[in-house]
Specification:
143 residues; alpha+beta; 3 strands; 20% helix
């Protein structure tokens, strides 16, 4: 059988199982669907809607199964998401989110903060101890 040009432009999941990246807890199991157009994802609180979107948008890699998302697909969050984690994990998120060490030096972290206009964070005595970044403004979170 041949794949139609339209089929190659669709979002699809086949046999997808999703795990929470930090704990490894099972969140969704054996999910399968094809999005043809104008799809609404609905379900009760805690049913895995956000986890599914995180995997589809490549924010989380903790899954098994087959996922297809066209390269020109973008996911726009309603709120900027910052995961819990160190300044090193924030800067490398999502590519190194599941690794323990990012390999970045403190000097490089400080250079990056300056480059994105967050040099005020360098004045904090607790910069390298912070794991909850909710105190940042929405604009700072976008940096």
């Amino acid at each position: 059988s041949s794949t139609s040009p339209l089929a190659s432009q669709l979002i699809s999941c086949d046999g997808v199982t999703i795990y929470e990246p930090n704990s490894g807890r099972l969140l969704l199991q054996n999910v399968g669907f094809v999005v043809d157009c104008n799809t609404l994802i609905m379900g009760p609180t805690g049913s895995g809607k956000t986890s599914l979107i995180r995997v589809l948008s490549k924010l989380w890699t903790a899954h098994v199964g087959s996922i297809r998302v066209p390269d020109d697909t973008f996911f726009i969050p309603q709120q900027i998401h910052l995961p819990l984690g160190s300044i090193f994990q924030q800067i490398t998120y999502p590519t190194l989110y599941i690794q323990q060490e990012s390999g970045l030096s403190k000097e490089r972290v400080e250079d990056i903060l300056r480059e994105v206009g967050l040099e005020a964070l360098l004045l904090r005595d607790d910069l390298y101890d912070i794991t909850d970044w909710e105190f940042l403004s929405p604009g700072q979170r976008q940096c």
